[in-house]
Amino acid sequence: MTSRSSRTVIRGGLVITAAEETRADVLVEDGRIAALAAPDSAYAQGWTADRTIDATDKYVIPGGVDAHTHIEMPFGGTFASDTFETGTRAAAWGGTTTIVDFAVQSMGHSLREGLDAWHAKAADLCAIDYSFHMILADVNEGTLREMDLLVDEGITSFKLFMAYPGVFYSDDGKILRAMQRGAANGGLMLMHAENGLAIDVLIEQALAEGKTDPRYHGEVRKSLLEAEATHRAIQLARVAGAPLYVVHVSAAEAVAELAQARDKGLPVFGETCPQYLFLSTDNLAEPDFEGAKYVCSTPLRPREHQAALWRGLRTNDLQIVSTDHCPFCFVGQKEMGRGDFSKIPNGLPGVEHRMDLLHQAVVDGHISRRRWIEIACATPARMFGLYPKKGTIAPGTDADLVIYDPRAEQTLSARTHHMNVDYSAYEGKRITGQVETVLSRGETVIDRRQYTGRVGHGQFIARDTCQYLD
Q1: C-alpha distances out from residue 235 to 25, 198, 371, Å
Q2: CA 197 to CA 213: how far, in whole Å?
Q3: pLDDT in tens, 217-226
Q4: Taking the alpha carbons of 295, 189, 264, 241 in that order, is the dihedral positive or negative?
């Protein structure tokens, strides 16, 4: 393990950022990038270091920024199965060096109580750096005032739900008030865009008809109700004069709403997730209750929606791929919904595989290498006020670096992953590309496929406001 005062040189790799690809040696000093230089230059040849990493035939990329995780998230009478210790370690294995998790406000409680609870869960346990968004479950005059205080201390994004009546749901009036406050204090409003009131009617009707299997989770959460909520969120944001970030976009119709808003020049942004790009309702329909493993919201869609998502990522109508990592074990957790799909905890494990799956998308020709880094590292860092400290490779930035082997082959499996969950959503999937070595602020966390990180290395990061709105 390198100490913070040591010097590391990474030689011979192809350095890939969102802006360019260049053959360069990288000098790391005191946890930051000190310099980049051409490998054959006298300048680079003159560097001395405590450790030299050979990156010949490898990529040197920024550590991934996963801006949407739910660690120890309460849902439906249970909790997401990863702790901040296990979840951040798994993220590191997959080349992600920063997560932005969601602190949860409970009904009748203050934002401060929710934020303090998440700080307590994460403190001194994380292997990589972390920050928080704030979920607003109870919008009132007190919580609106608290939003200003949170922005001042680096919690600069707030999530609202149009789904889950009785749990997280906010009506249009509360959403408008929160958006108006965000417009005033610089906070970015995140939206779970599904018409939860209508969905609950369809759930009730499906169960009354004896439709209880996991596949009906996808059928009742209709893509039109995602599109309708996306449209409504955009119009409310326009009325409030606020920017909007729509999370986990899964449906072609919702992408069309975002594209239309962006064509008007509105500050509207969209995120999708690997599960919508690589999985489908075919998985929800797997027999013997296996489909429960794939229950998440927004739900997996029929395969034909994938083309619209890939196109949205290429045209920048979708800007970011996050995981919405929210793992629940099949045994004892997903099984809570046997005989009633509405009781299956919503969420998939994924924090470990995002960078690899997106590299597979490069191999498959969906996106370019630079776009891979853009949607996985640079844009999430900019969107959530972490750039250029995170998300790129340049003098002065944090030395969050991944040595990536683009030719290595691996098979994803619960037997080999490091997330604290008893199944893989991608069991048996063969992919090309694998993380070899990971540095977090200059410290080696993964060393040639060996974990060398430590509990408590990760630091909380207070974030600036969204850098697309300056």
Answers
A1: 48, 19, 29
A2: 21
A3: 999 999 999 9
A4: positive
